[in-house]
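Fig. S4 source data, part A: sequence.
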Amino acid sequence: MLSTLKRVLCATDGSHSSSKAVDYAIDMAGTLGTGVSFAIVNVLTDAELAAEPMFWDSDIETAMDEQIHIPLETASAKAKKAGVKEARYVILHGRDIAGNIIKYAEENGYDHIVVGSRGRTGLTRILLGLISDN
């Protein structure tokens, strides 16, 4: 079954369990001799940020953007270090985390989606979402 997979998408949020999913996706891509893409879903839209200008200043937006990129850049670097042919990432937007990941996978021809079973909690969960919770 694995030999028929050609494209691997791994949803991550930087949590411990999604780190295990990243490792699994990297191993899978290495075994298949293919690339891997990493995705994260930002649940806060630009419209929501604009609606509360007193709360969401540019420093907060910059910090949030940096926080979103960290697990993606870490995963991509780990894949490249492991010798994976191609490693890239994408940031998706919207409240329907699972739906956004599936839609992206379908629209871009991914054969397999890898996710962790538990994610972040508290404020980080609100900001970044919980991938497998949907």
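Fig. S4 source data, part B ends here. The chain has one domain: 2-133.
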